[in-house]
Write a structure and sequence with these properties.
two-stranded antiparallel sheet, Aminopeptidase, 41% helix
């Protein structure tokens, strides 16, 4: 009997560190690690005059692509059935676009994916003025990089994700969404394996709230998943972000709602039959203007929105089946 007890005790002690390591952390454990300083650093670099508006095919776009690629490499991302994190495509006979695509595999094997995306290109230089595109869409890129970092941390803690996550930084959104169109057309897996696209486009300003609350976020989603997404977001807001005003109706305008379903890279997924949702803080007086600079970014609001998008993506990989 004593030998049996001793064997059980030795086995338990050997497993104890692993069991402690694999205990699930709360969502707040991960979101508490978001940093305003890191978000500010990302936005200010991407929207700096050095990148000269990041028009597709320009040196500024290459600088930005290199920055994103180095961040994904630092996180240990792997290519998506490719030799490199870069996915090149032709815009026309003289211009080449470059998507930056990194994959974080699920904790355990699955052939299911979600894509979380943001475009990094903007308008470049027009009439001698640099269109820095801080909100559109350096804010979305900064948010996506921060979300990727949280999921990497989560996997290191043996806490998920339960679906493979593709982090897609699209080029040429401002050229008829050529980057996301190419990505969806050249998928190396079945479209049915891509369960959802979560697109982030302009999430850094507080100039266009649906009400009086400056802590807000809007979204538009495919009709086939709209109801389930609303339920998930309401649960997340209630438990984790009760002070956020989450607009399910896009300013109460069905026509605006459907219009914005076609205005960013999530539309490429919808056209391909892949459900999609886009998060945004709305267009405002600086959108598509040379005044869209990083000084107007509300970093506290950007951090809260990044929390919500991360929590939604995490919930979808673990709980939701739509």
């Amino acid at each position: 009997m004593h030998k049996v007890i001793k064997t059980i005790l030795v086995t338990w002690l050997a497993l104890c560190p692993f069991l402690l390591f694999s205990q699930n952390k709360t969502p707040e454990f991960y979101t508490s690690q978001l940093s305003i300083d890191k978000l500010r650093s990302s936005v200010s670099f991407i929207a700096n005059d050095l990148t000269k508006g990041r028009q597709t095919g320009t040196p500024g776009a290459l600088i930005t692509a290199s920055y994103i690629r180095s961040e994904l490499e630092r996180m240990g991302m792997i290519p998506f059935y490719s030799q490199t994190l870069s996915q090149s495509f032709k815009i026309d006979s003289t211009h080449i676009g470059r998507n930056i695509i990194g994959v974080l595999t699920a904790q355990y094997y699955t052939d299911q994916y979600i894509v979380i995306s943001a475009h990094y290109d903007h308008l470049g230089i027009i009439g001698g003025q640099i269109y820095n595109g801080a909100d559109d869409n350096a804010s979305g890129v900064a948010s996506l990089l921060a979300i990727a970092e949280l999921f990497v941390k989560m996997k290191s803690e043996r806490d998920g994700p339960k679906k493979n996550i593709i982090f897609a930084f699209f080029d040429a959104k401002e050229s008829s969404m050529a980057g996301s169109e190419y990505f969806t057309a050249m998928l190396p897996v079945k479209k049915s394996q891509i369960r959802l696209n979560i697109n982030i486009d302009q999430v850094g300003c507080t100039f266009a709230p649906p009400g009086e609350n400056k802590n807000y976020l809007l979204y538009v989603a495919d009709s086939k998943v709209r109801g389930n997404i609303r339920k998930d977001l309401d649960i997340i807001r209630r438990f984790y972000l009760p002070d956020m005003d989450l607009d399910h109706t896009f300013y109460g305008s069905p026509s605006f709602y459907e219009l914005f379903m076609r205005t960013s890279d999530h539309h490429s997924f919808s056209k391909a039959g892949i459900p999609s949702v886009m998060f945004t803080s709305g267009i405002h007086m600086h959108t598509y203007k040379p005044t869209d600079v990083h000084f107007f970014i509300d970093y506290a609001a950007l951090l809260e929105r990044t929390k919500l998008i991360f929590l939604f993506a995490d919930r979808y990989t673990k709980v939701s089946g739509y």
